[in-house]
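REVIEWER CHECKLIST
Item 1: Sequence provided? yes
Item 2: Single chain? yes
Item 3: Sequence as submitted:
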Amino acid sequence: MNELMLRRLAGMALMLSVPLWIAGEAIHPRSEGLADIVRSGQSQSHAILALAFVFLLLGLPGLYGSHAGRSGVLGLVGYVLMVVFVAYHVYMFLYETGPVAFMAQDSAAERLFAHGGVVEQGTLRMWLAAPVSLGPIIYGIALVRTRRFPRVAGWLVISWLPVFVAFNVLFAALPPAGQETLFDLRFANVGIGGSYLLLLTGLAIAGMRLWRWSSAEESLSQPVAQ
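Item 4: Structure as written out by the authors:
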């Protein structure tokens, strides 16, 4: 299998992450509270979401390889952080697919799901949230600067963090009744899932470019002469 075919397969992997993410979000429970997890298909939903991020892991090396010569140190740092970002989400979704679903059946589930409890500690957000969140910002900037892909791809990757943070801040500012209304309308899922969909769509646009890659373009991925 030649390098051109590997790059096209990487592009396909990036593109496949989008429909998988949409499918996982479509069957996601109204919230991730204990009551909703017990009577829902969270395990199936998060297994599909994990698979979407596994496809990102498979596609990212090919994507980075196509612009490594043009993106320099910024691209390398962004790529490493992006791999950590994606790998962390694979872990988190699998953690919520198996252990969290299992603990929801425990007689002490309310204590386990309490704020600061075992379930929350297992997500590792306390230690990894800040550094992991830098990945899409730095890698998105690198994608924009390479001018190897449509600029919208990089901007969509960058947009994940501000959209995610803005939605969570606004949601937290609502009274409990308002939050429950949004849960009932599934708007909370749309807001958070939509921020990730922006990121995945950006990478899929770059993946589409990889899928259409031709051997004549190979030289364009090499370093630019100074």
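Item 5: Key structural point noted by reviewer: The chain has one domain: 3-216.
Item 6: Recommendation: ____
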